[in-house]
Hints:
Chain A is mainly alpha-helical.
Amino acid sequence: xxxxxxxxxxxxxxxxxxxxxxxxxxxxxxxxxxxxxxxxxxxxxxxxxxxxxxxxxxxxxxxxxxxxxxxxxxxxxxxxxxxxxxxxxxxxxxxxxxxxxxxxxxxxxxxxxxxxxxxxxxxxxxxxxxxxxxxxxxxxxxxxxxxxxxxxxxxxxxxxxxxxxxxxxxxxxxxxxxxxxxxxxxxxxxxxxxxxxxxxxxxxxxxxxxxxxxxxxxxxxxxxxxxxxxxxxxxxxxxxxxxxxxxxxxxxxxxxxxxxxxxxxxxxxxxxxxxxxxxxxxxxxxxxxxxxxxxxxxxxxxxxxxxxxxxxxxxxxxxxxxxxxxxxxxxxxxxxxxxxxxxxxxxxxxxxxxxxxxxxxxxxxxxxxxxxxxxxxxxxxxxxxxxxxxxxxxxxxxxxxxxxxxxxxxxxxxxxxxxxxxxxxxxxxxxxxx
Amino acid sequence: xxxxxxxxxxxxxxxxxxxxxxxxxxxxxxxxxxxxxxxxxxxxxxxxxxxxxxxxxxxxxxxxxxxxxxxxxxxxxxxxxxxxxxxxxxxxxxxxxxxxxxxxxxxxxxxxxxxxxxxxxxxxxxxxxxxxxxxxxxxxxxxxxxxxxxxxxxxxxxxxxxxxxxxx
Amino acid sequence: xxxxxxxxxxxxxxxxxxxxxxxxxxxxxxxxxxxxxxxxxxxxxxxxxxxxxxxxxxxxxxxxxxxxxxxxxxxxxxxxxxxxxxxxxxxxxxxxxxxxxxxxxxxxxxxxxxxxxxxxxxxxxxxxxxxxxxxxxxxxxxxxxxxxxxxxxxxxxxxxxxxx
Lengths: 434, 168, 164
């Protein structure tokens, strides 16, 4: 490209406040990064000019506050540049200033489609750091409820993806099912949405008979309801045409770019931490790892559908095997004592005072623990210096890494395919932005 | 009564304020500014169980130019605040704002460097709603309270800066 | 320690020599502290070796150790699909010379994580093609996750629109 030719940036006068930048830099770094991705493009023929289109951060189909800067040739996407940070809430800084118990509430708001799963993921990392383990009954309840959370997350993915490509009914049906799961949480946990259910060494309270009955009632009717929803889409020509062969990514590429969860399994890589690095009680349960080979939007959709069936299977097994016993580990210096004992016994009162005011004081060290959440691999790295609060807490959020594949997936597709691709990736910005 | 009987059938007498307020309050179109967790509860408010349509406010418009009330649902960061303000500026008057949830009202549990501690720092807010996130019923309560406020405000000076409604 | 990981660590020590500064084991998590000059070589070997390849780079993140020397640490997590084990690398750098060669040539997925580390700690990754801030606005001057940055931020560092 000769130097006299105008560059793409000369055509765009973007309303970006550039007063703080050097006068030659008239463009935002985001735009510059987008333009830099393809420097060999020339602009001789005005009819061949491409345009830059901004999508988001307030757009109904970006699943939150994702912003994508698109470079279009007609309707074809030449390049895309996602921009994050519109929901950056500073979790990691907050964690450094709170005790381990206090941060449980914050994990709810990470991936807000499945709050309970985040609670479990975080508490498992803390328990690994402390070197304790919850009793079997607590582990089974955690497994059961996190699978319910997975179903509720996949339901949103299912419904929202359908809505994005034009099938509004399904969203309403999925939310009807989600309300039933919220009702179960209301009974078992005491909150319908932000659960904060886990505690170090156990769970907040034991599950009662009415909770078990509610879960059973849900499981009995759910497969039929799911089937009802599937029938709307699985033989739908419009849906198929929009999703098949869009956003194709091969298994090697997906691994290299760091995709995890259903998005990776849709490309034929059978990585599921529930089976490969078992935590909770998954090694005692029987379930399949769902994979598809095509790696397109439709494959990702199918993986999520089949995973909901597997989750139902897992919950049924948990209900059958649910052991009796306590739901709190016997670690007086680390596990919060029961409220009724605090009021009546000196020992528990002292422990409660120490844990609440000074924290659990884990040993010095660094741990990493990851679980398979509905979005992918959700991991917490904790660096402890022996104090009541973490020295550093890093959240390895699956949505962040899944979004990284977006430019690669969007390239060469039509503008309207963004919805099918983004819906099938199923990112949650609360988690991606942290 | 007096005047209407003199005018004959088909006339009513009322204050213009009352008539326009009545019309306005029953045709509120929300702009769902869904930012984070509260947006999911906002979606739940539209689901078959809660059914926001019962209150005549279900016409969610993602285009700011077609909407009357902005429901700021979620945590507003400093980076996002400029976008929220820009969208608010694009809305046609008269316009109202509901701060849904603790984050939008006060920063909530996120006391950190990147979160705006309450959207009233850059937006005039009409109703603050408590909850993290508020249950859909709580959002309906906010909308009903807003309807009352809209119905009783003056036409010429609809934003006569009454104190914002704080729901707990 | 897991025998597979033990072998990997042993081979890493052999290949890298003194560049492997330390091996820490805590709760079965193995952290290999290496010099920044060999991080790309180590990552390449981890990805390509035959015995226990690590094709997935799970995470890259910074730690502000807040010490006089070697203030910043950067951790890398790698996962092996064949053996289902993890290995963690750690690189330590000085505050004045916070530069690390990028591993995006080996693991493209590390790109955004390195951007995040740059955004939060100001550690630069030499050779990274697109090293911009990922979360904070690009005109922001500070690095928020450093320990000397206050939790509530510095007033005026991030502008707000006017209320009117």
